[in-house]
Structures are given as C-alpha cells and as structure tokens.
Please model this.
Amino acid sequence: MTKHTFAQLESVLRDMDPAPRVLTDDERERAVTTRDLILSTPSAEHVRIAPDRQVRRRRRALVAVAAAATAAVAVPTAIGGATAFASWTATPQPLSRSDVSAAATTCQSALGIGGRDARPVIGEKRGGWTYVLVGGPTGEGACLMSNDLVGTPGDTASKRGFLGTFDADPPSAPTPPPDGFVETESMQGSIPLRGRLPFTTTDGWLSWVSGYVGGDVVGISLHPPMGPDVTATVSQGRFSAWWPANGAKQGAGGVWTYTVTLADGTSRPAQPAGY
Model:
C-alpha cells in the first residue's frame, strides 16, 4: 500500500481548493456583484436581476451537458486532476489548416456527423487542449479534446480526454446587428480526469459559449466572475470560447459579461442581442 506524507496530502488538498489565494480588483468586484445577486434573490424561482438571461442560460447548459453525455463519452485522461487545465491559456492560438482538418475529422467521427458538406468553422488551441466547431446540413457539433487526440479515430477519442456536443437540428442562423452578437449556446460540462492520488479521479469542470457576430465585430472578450478575462476566437461570422470553471463542481462557472471590439478599433461592453 502506498503511503503519503502529510506534506503530500496537504499539497493535494490545497490544489483542490477552488478559491484563489489573491483576487485582483476586477475579480473582487465581479465576485461582490455575484454575491449581491445571490443575496437579493428571495428564491430560485424569483430572480429580480436579469431573470431572462439567467433562466435561458441555465436551461441551455442542462441540455448541452445531457447532449455531451449521450453524443460522446467523456472519460479519464492522463492529465492530473486539479492541474488538468494548468496549461490552459486565456488567449487562444490558431490552428494550422491541417490541424483544423484533423480535429474536425476526429470530432465528426466521434459525434457521428456525416456528410461531405460538413466543414470546420472554428478551430483553436489553448495549451494542451484543442477546440473545434463543425457545421453542415446534417447538424452542428463542437468538440474539446486533448491535443494528442487530434487526428485519431472518433471511437478512440471518445474513450479518452474528450467532450463533445451535437445538435442534429440546429436553429436557423440569426442575424446579429453589425456591431453586436448573438449567443446561441452556453454550457457547462466536465471531463473525468485522473486524480493526484492513485486510483482516484476528479471532474474537470469547464464552461464554453458560442454564437454569431455582426459584420463589424472583429473581437470578443469574456469576463468570468473569477479568473482572467477570456479572448474568444472570431471566425467566419462565428465566435466561441471556453475556460476552466472555478472549483471542481457543477455550477461553479458563474455569470460572465462581454466586451466587443469593432473593425474601427473601438471596444465597448456589450450584451448579446435579444437579452
């Protein structure tokens, strides 16, 4: 039997603590805003502040997590529990054309998206993880996979560090205002990951969001309630981003806000069209 010293156990417990040691001023302000929102809510059925956005986002999250559970299996990967997303970066790296094609092929295979007309719309890499959004007449899917799975067969990918969603009947593409955007999907999901201690696992929770942008929008930044600001990938009239949730539990992602950057170089806070 493997014995662990007190120092080792203390290190593991500290890594599992979702609370950061020090908050920046922006993080503290967003945390206070979220706290005040919770305290001002008399019950789960009566949200006084922005109720429509809260309810609609939560509903999509539950549906998306269910789709991930049925369309593609998320299973343990070799990356260690609390540090599973340690390589994640707030600013994405673009993928080469060959890597986008390989990631899209793996995603389509794992989710069962057929048809030669399916094509990658967005491809990005954040540290050790690759994200791809694929669309076509037979449906739309999004996949997050560890970089070593890019280009592997779908049945292999779905048995390892992989999370995917698939919509066989996506709604018609909305028409956002030229200087705005429409959020069409936001969800929270998890990838079971190998824990720090032998024979243990932990869920690596994450949030992701995607949608459509107007013709004048060249950049979108997201501001989670805790953690760094996240730069979305904007491509072909679409945007998408994902980030690790704070804390290894469902619901830890919180509510986020947006800033858009326009073609003339100006940036401003913005809300999704329709909210």
Residues 48-170+177-270 form one domain. The longest strand covers residues 181-194. Residues 41-82, 247-252 have pLDDT under 50 and may be disordered. Helices lie at 6-16, 25-39, 51-71, 97-111, 154-157.
